[in-house]
Amino acid sequence: MTPSAPAMAALRLSLVRGVGVYIARQLLEALGSYESVWHSSDSQWAQIEGIGPKLLSALKGSDMTQAEHIAKQCQQASIQLLCSEDADYPNILNSNDDAPLLLFVRGDARALSHPQPLAIVGARKSSHESKMIAKRWSQYFSEHHILVISGMAYGIDAAAHSGALGGATPTIAVLGCGLLRLQARQEQQVAAIIEHGGCVVSEFLPEQAARPENFPQRNRIIAGLAQATLVIEADIRSGSIITANHAASYGREVLATPGSVLNNGHAGCHQLIRDGANLIDSPEQLLQLLNWQLDIASENTPFVSDNEAEMAVFHALQHDILHLDALSEACSLTVPALSPILLDLELRGVIERLAGSRYTLGGL
Q1: Is a pLDDT exceeding 90 seen at residue 348?
Q2: Does residue 240 sit in helix, strand or coil?
Q3: Domains in the chain: boundaries
Q4: Alpha-carbon span 51 to 45, nearest angstrom
Q5: CATH architecture assignment, domain 308-361
Q6: Which DSSP string corresponds to 129-146?
Q7: How far is residue 278 from each of residues 159, 165, 187, 258, 303, measured CA to CA in Å?
Q8: What is the spatial distance between Cα 65 and Cα 113, in angstroms, rounded to a whole number?
Q9: Longest Cα pair distance anywhere in the chain, in angstroms?
Q10: Edge-to-edge, what's the strand order for the sheet holding 117-122?
Q11: DSSP 3-state assignment of 254?
Q12: Are 243 and 234 in contact (CB under 8 A)?
């Protein structure tokens, strides 16, 4: 898709050394549009707050050559460029003072304006239980017309996207690198997200590599695109807490799941709750809190079996995670008799085996 004239003007502006979000906002407020920036005189630029001699010189020395080269790269790679003057640039993001000048988008940009967007973030090195929660809840949300946004990292992010892909609603990934610098694993994830009707977004130039400082910057976009941010397992100093703080600064809802006090990986969520975040222990609770409709895109069929032992296992696990020994007692079966039943149910996806010989219901 050919970029709009405003997007090209914004791209040219983004390439001027010293121009960031703040300066770009100042120019827009003073001059009215991205195109007007380049139709203005040196004296008009000089009157704008933040434009000193050095930046004035950089603006004067700018031309369209590099911008045109990048635009051509994007067209060849099916990357869409969006600025705040484009119809597909999301209003929910543009309402923030630190909204990016440009978004580079692969996939269906219309997903950016979904009416019920939810950010789900958490630790890269997360527990099996937390990843299970992220995946199951994200599928539930996707089945209820809620669009899940995350960062496509390992751990909670990956689990959230995976769960959302199991539902009917698209998902969005926001990256901390350019869209032409993806690894093979990331390309597979991107393909799945696009095939499901979603999109992948970055504010970084297409060939910009991932750097540590990119991710806190990326996190404000995750929070900015969502009406609410849910944190599932996060340390006190994690990037997920940065995302939650951005969400709070935008006046959006912040939600967190509690965890064991013996696991420092949950300390960030506990601090968020102490600071006023809503404690969430079920996906239904989140929908009720946000007053989102419970319209269901697709219903799961409840598990039914003629085998009494299988139904006993199912009922025993409906409200608890149980150790093998406790499950054996609850079902009145010896461990040798129970083990093949558990294996069969696990292979069918009815139950899931956790660390320490514990069991829980699968994502039916």
Answers
A1: no
A2: helix
A3: 5-109, 119-170+212-290, 308-361
A4: 7
A5: Orthogonal Bundle (1.10)
A6: HHHHHHHHHHHHHHHTT-
A7: 22, 26, 35, 10, 32
A8: 32
A9: 87
A10: 80-83, 102-107, 199-202, 171-174, 147-150, 117-122, 228-232, 253-256, 278-279
A11: strand
A12: no
Non-local CB neighbours of 321 within 8 Å, separated by 6+ positions: 129, 354, 358, 359, 360
The tokens describing 311, both together, are 């139904």
pLDDT digits (tens, 9 = 90+) for 286-329: 999 998 876 554 445 578 888 999 999 998 888 778 899 999 99
Strand locations in 247-336 (E): 253-256, 278-279, 322-323
Per-residue confidence (pLDDT) for residue 1, from 0 to 100: 78
The amino acid at residue 68 is E
Per the listing, tokens 């990326």 go with 218
Q: Tokens at residue 72, please?
A: 């051509």
Q: Which residues pair with 150 in a beta bridge?
A: 173
Name the token pair of 359: 């069991």
Phi-psi region of 59 (alpha: psi -120 to 50; beta: other; left: phi over 0): alpha
Give whole-number Cα distances, 358 to 8, 233, 335, 349, 363, in Å. Answer: 56, 20, 13, 15, 16
pTM for this predicted structure: 0.84
CATH topology of domain 119-170+212-290: Rossmann fold (3.40.50)
Q: Which residues share a beta bridge with 148?
A: 118, 171
